[in-house]
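step 3/5: co-fold with iron/sulfur cluster
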Amino acid sequence: MQVDFSMENIRRCLCLECPVQRESRCVRDKKKIMLLITQQDLDSAMRMDTDRVPGVYCSTGRAICRDIDPHEECLCSGCEVWKEHILSESDVSDYFCIKKISR
Ligand code: SF4
Ligand code: SF4
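step 4/5: write tokens
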């Protein structure tokens, strides 16, 4: 099932808290910008484009930041988006930020 890149899924995504991204300076910087956009609100849904959000990789299929650590544990299986879309049954079911997914 295709995952939408939506504000609802951005909010539910666990990637921002994931150990794989924890030490990434690039992710930290993007989180700050996301926070600013959310605080200013206005059109946050429109301004959260795929290049700004270091998450929902099950939808976008790629990590923006390169300084992530693939040796840490993926949190996807605990995510509501993952359960709702039955991603356990897809060809790729974890580490969407690293593995290549076909869309
Ligand atoms: S399944 Fe993984 S990549 Fe997709 S929204 Fe959840 S935590 Fe993020
Ligand atoms: S896809 Fe999985 S491993 Fe990658 S950042 Fe999201 S939760 Fe972590």
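step 5/5: annotate
Residues 7-89 form one domain.
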